[in-house]
Amino acid sequence: MTLVLEQLLNGLQFGVMLFLLAAGLTLIFGIMGVINLAHGSLYMVGAYAAAFAAAQTGSFLIAVLAGLAAAAFIGMVMELVVLRRLYARDHLDQVLATFALILIFNQSVTLLFGRQPLFVSVPPALNGSVQLLPGLTYPVYRLAIIAVGLLVALGLYLLINRTRVGMLVRAGATHREMVRALGVDIRLLYTAVFGLGALLAGLAGLMAGPILAVQVGMGEQILIMTFVVVVIGGVGSIRGAFFGALLVGLVDTSLRAFAPGLLRHVMTGSEADALGAGLASMGIYLLMAIVLLVRPKGLFPAHV
Amino acid sequence: MSENAITNTDSAAPAPGRIVTLLLLAVALIALPFIVKALGQPALVPLATRVLIYAIAAASLNLALGFGGMVSFGHAAFFGIGGYAVGILYRTFADDALFLGFIPGTDQLLITLPAAILVAGLFACIIGALSLRTSGVQFIMITLAFAQMLFFLFVSLKAYGGDDGMTIRRRNALFDLNTRDDVTFYFICLVIAALVFLALWRIVGSRFGMVLAGIRQNERRMAAIGIAPYRYKLAAFVISGMGAGLAGALMANYLRFISPDMLHWTKSGELMIMVILGGVGTLLGPLLGAAALVILETVLTSWTEHWQLVLGPILLLVVLFTQGGLNGLIARLGLGRSAP
Asked: What ipTM did this prediction achieve?
């Protein structure tokens, strides 16, 4: 039972990480209509900037600020230089251009930091574990990630639904032309939304640093899963991104944890492990295929 | 996706300038092995073979992507399935076993290629039938999802090498030819590529091709005049998948090695790059695109380990500043508006 609870918490933690990425991606999708494959690169930029700052200064706070600033800055530059030219193009050009951006980012990072993964230690204040239930201890750092993720979700909800900027974002997602016609500086809004998305991606990246290895290619691994989340949730919907992320996080984590064990009842150990790992990796794609077949626009479509 | 694609497909008889270009291309491709041998660069023959194989895959993808308007981000799946068909048949043949208990293995190219095409077509039919219920971004993502599922399936199949892939000890046999010989294999690929391009040219110019172009431009209008778009799109998707499977089967023979990498999503991306680089919705564009990408990759790798840092900006510039890829660029630069 405690094992199941622990895996649920792991799934939740993975889910909120996915949410941070998916929220930015779905906004960019929904408002500007751009498929940004390079969103994962911003995650990588955040992770590397934070890891570098932490190694140089030893301060976790400075590392956090560096990660956020680097991701948001690079994101906005990316929007101004490349993405802005792609809004009116079809999806194909967007996919190719942002694929090219991935190559550029990955190679630049390899050039700067080498191929060896960087390892980041957990900040001392968040080191250690707490006992949640009798027999269930859980690392504080992972709990902190869950808390940050949920807080960001709440903040985004308030931002989108309660503020003037949020109103423009919502209007931009459904009636882009109308917002422009009413005299709103849509280009500024686009850059701001892109910066916000990049900031969230960077936040996810810098938080992932101490749990995963910081390495080239980390962005693409999570990017594909983020796309799955966005599509399951419904393109352009923050609410969809939230529930989609939690669903994907939980399904993926529990399949990885339990599929090999269950298969071992019916076949030999090593084959069960291999097939179980394969099934676990396939699980979320299967989930996405089923969701899309039942509801082609995702669970919470933004444009009804 | 410009009007361009339509204007060069609706004329059944190609323009004289075009015939000359095609003849020159054919002569150049046939003469290539002898020329590079005379120049003392025999290593270029395998490179040209790779270009031809990727050109088949890219041209097939172009049928769905350029002519049918279906942005499939999962064509590496069919490419890989074609490769695995060859690999599994060869392994079964070498072990003198039966695949799934009733399919005997073989090393005959005349059997493995049709088998690869058939299996890839079958998968394309299933994946296409489900995916075509969606459109737009969702279609891109669901094709990607199916490809990823198959990728992980092959990763987990320990019997066929799993993550590491498996080697095919010998290329498939064709009559009494020595397929091990690079020039011989080049000509096999050249003949097949020519057949594929010919078939695609016939398909695009046929009534079916016209309907497909109509659906791409306005699906609702086609439905209104009494054509069921779904069936046409599915048929195009299946043909496209079969072509990619054929290319995968040739690639497995060429490399004498298959691994899940053939199904990875970056491979789908590469195929798309070739199509876009060459020019979406043009017949010879994919050949140009495949040549450009493969040659660029080879040249840049010999220069620097960080070749992707050069490739990235080049791709970016091509997308941002050339309309219609290399094919469009050539048309605008040299041949005015008459060429495709």
From this structure: 0.75
